[in-house]
Amino acid sequence: MYYALLGLGLLVANNAVPYLLLIVIGHFGTTMIVYPLYRLIVFKVSGEGWLSGYLRFYAVGLSFLGASVIGLPLLVEFAGLPLMMAQALIILLSPPLSYAINRTWTFRKRGNVGPWRHM
Fold it and tell me: Of 6, 8, 39, 102, which has the maximum CB count within 10 A?
């Protein structure tokens, strides 16, 4: 979703907007779109407030946004990679880590304090 929004933003902006700003806008839009899907379909969370869950989800996402904001200029400006290729490289590293963090912190079942509760 994020990659598509970034690509669309780049096409629409036509170099009139700095790509780092498009990254921030695309990230925010993506979290607004995918949070309900993660909550209802991927992790099947109910009974907890949507706002508190979204804030935790967004906090996790900010670390990945930071990776893009720092990594993209390095890959684009210094390594000479095209922007979308550089972003694809950064994105490839994100899903497993994002899933693990979201599963254990953002969408954890509140009655289960830690992994030892299942032993």
Answer: 6
Q: Calculate ∠ Cα 105-111-114, nearest 5°.
A: 50
Does the pLDDT of residue 99 top 70, yes or no?
no
- Please tell me the distance from the alpha carbon of residue 36 to that of residue 50, in angstroms, as a whole number: 9
Using CA atoms, how far apart are residues 35 and 39, in angstroms rounded to an integer? 6
pTM across the whole model: 0.70
Q: Which helix (H) or strand (E) segment is 54 a member of?
A: helix 50-73
Burial class, 23, CB count within 10 angstroms (exposed 0-12 / middle 13-18 / buried 19+):
buried
> How far apart are the C-alpha atoms of 50 and 106, rounded to whole Å?
11
